[in-house]
Amino acid sequence: MSNLTSTTGADAIDEAIARGIDFDGSQIPDAPLALYHKVMALEAGRQRSGVINTMRSRIVRIGAKHIPQAELNQLLIDANFKPLKDKEIAFYYGT
After folding, report:
1. Angle CA(40)–CA(46)–CA(49) in degrees, nearest 5?
2. Quick one: pLDDT at residue 73?
3. DSSP per-residue codes, 59-85
4. 20-78 pLDDT, tens per residue?
5. Do 49 and 58 form a contact (C-beta atoms < 8 A)?
6. Alpha-carbon gap, residue 1 to 29, rounded angstroms
C-alpha cells in the first residue's frame, strides 16, 4: 500500500490509477494504464441519458455486491426507482 492512505472508498481506485501504483505498492504497467485512459476518454465523450437512470444503474451494480436481492429490490421501490429487472437479477444474482 505504498504511498496510499486508503484502499477503501470510491476514490481509492482512481487515486491509485493516477499514481500508477497498485495497492500492493507495485507499479501498474504502461499497457493497462494506456488502455484504461483510452477507454475512459471515450466514456468521457459519451452522451448521458440522465442522472436518475445513471443513479439507478450504479445503485444496482454496486448494491448487488453488498445487499441481498430482495432487500435491494425493496430499497429501489421505496426510493421510487423501478424494481430489479429479470436480466439484472440473472446477471448480478445468478438466478
Report:
1. 125
2. 98
3. HHHHHHHHS-HHHHHHHHHHTTPPPPP
4. 999 999 999 999 999 999 999 999 999 888 899 999 999 999 999 999 999 999 999 99
5. no
6. 16
Predicted confidence band of residue 5 (pLDDT cuts 50, 70, 90) = low
Helix, strand, coil in percent for the chain, rounding step 5: 60, 0, 35
CA distance 36 to 10: 17
* DSSP per-residue codes, 36-48: HHHHHHHHHTSPP
Instruction: Say whether pLDDT at 3 is over 80.
Output: no
Report how far apart, in Å, the C-alpha atoms of 72 and of each of 13, 54, 58, 78 are. 25, 16, 12, 10
Q: Which three cell numbers stand for residue 70?
A: 430482495
